Amino acid sequence: MSVAIARGVGLGLACGDDRWAIATPDPLPVLAELVAASAPRWVWWGDETTALVAQAQIPIDRCWDVRTVHRMLFGGSRAPLGEVWATLKGLRLDTLPRLGQLGLLDPPSDEGDRAEPTMPDGHLRPEWIDGGFGRTPDRLAAWAACALEAASLQDQLIDGRGDPARCRSTARSESAAELLCAEMSAAGLPVDERTAHGLIADAAGPRPESAEHDDRLRAARDEVVLARLEHRREVNLRNPGEVKAMLERQGFELPDTRAWRLEKLRHTEPLIDALLTWRKAERIATTYGYAWLDEHVREGRLRGSWSSTDGAAGRMTASAGLHNLPSVMRPIVTAEEGHLFVRADLGQIEPRVLAAVSGDRMLIEATRGDDLYLPIAQRLGVERSVAKLAVLGAMYGATTGESAGALAGLRKNYPVAMALLEQAAESGKRSEDVFTHGGRRVRMWASHKQDGNLDRAVAAAAARGRYARNAVIQGAAAEYFKVWAITVRRHSRALGAVVVLCLHDELLVHVPEARADEAAAMVTNAVVEAAHYWSPQADVRFVADTQVVKRWSDVA
DNA sequence: ATCGTAGGCGCC
DNA sequence: AAAGGGCGCCTACGAT
To answer: What residue ranges define each of the domains in chain A, with the CATH number in brackets?
Structure first.
């Protein structure tokens, strides 16, 4: 059974042909009761409802998020509801109505007394999409019924896909992951603000009291680097061109001033060391400084917006620095009083996923151990580090260096896995969309300019090849990760635990101290449960490293 | 002024 | 050991 919901002046619900609305000042308790009483699959259009369910902490596990499923079926990250509906109904996208500016072109009020979410031509009413659906109980019920129809159309569409059962299960898990994202957005990540102030002060100095003070602090940070110059002069360290010129004057000819390039020279020259140290501090001062703290941290929680699907291949994204907090800042992520974190990350996830989606028997064999690179190195007759580099290179599309040498060995020993990657790369070169194992479409793009420059066209095709090659692995890994995350979310409820961070292959779960060990075991077991649900190959082994910590940075 | 892009760097 | 895939966010800068 599926029940669709929408919320405005009350709660709109639809189930099969029945539609009804509950118009009370606070309909959420009613919804909570309904959830407790039955376990339907809840259907909704997208963000607005997930935010509502998350904020009200309604414990829904089974859902169908029309917008999220649309992104999965058609690719791309934008999915305006008007387009979603038009696509499902086979309506022309170039006849999509737009919400008139200044109200002059608002759709005529020709709907009469009937609450009808669509116009005579079949398109959704822009004014409804824009929030008008919530104005009256009748509209709410109709909007919910319309979501139900959209979900049903998507379900039919999935029947026409190559592997409907798998595609359907991906649609469901991705929908639940979207709800988890809404919950993480609402709850935030526990952060110790005093530690944060201390770390920011270490890098950027005290909190500036005025614009002039800020300038002085900046100049003082710069001075440490500039003082190393043989001939003192003003250089804008924030301008890569000026830095490059400065290094040239010091005798360093470099194509650019990237850290990995400078790192090699670090110990030959105090100036380089000072510059690299400056950049680290500057990163914290600018991106993760006081302004960041003021904007994103409130009452001990760091909040950003999470999306389950925004990454090109379907990875999660997060704003507010949640996905790229520098490691030196990670001690700020601290469990609250009486709580601990269960921190766990999947081990060697991408090559294990490659084994699963390709079904390469020899590679599957290699996943049996904790370290899958060891048996690969043995087969190839190379060092472990070389084998690792070669496997990663094959998935990222590296073509040069030592990894390229081992590539031939990989092709010979793991032909099925390598063929899958090659096929994806070929699709990419031809600008043909690729599909992840779970059925997500990953859009490719055509060459923008046909300027007749063959070199550039070849380079662009090669870039698409690398992108597509990586997308089928990264995308499938993201699908498996999300299944793991929602499995943990579902089991967390009984322990009073909450998933507070997802980072591509890593989970952070906030849990009362007394249940921490139970939660850790649950998280580890969930790796197997998720593999059972997701993996097309039952004998691929997935592993996780799980720890109970007070701070995110407490890695044993 | 506002926008997009490039170089850079943080994380995976 | 080489510098390949993804994301968000910073500054500087040129185009609009």
So the answer is: 2-160 (3.30.420), 193-292 (1.20.1060), 303-349+479-549 (3.30.70.370), 350-476 (1.10.150.20)
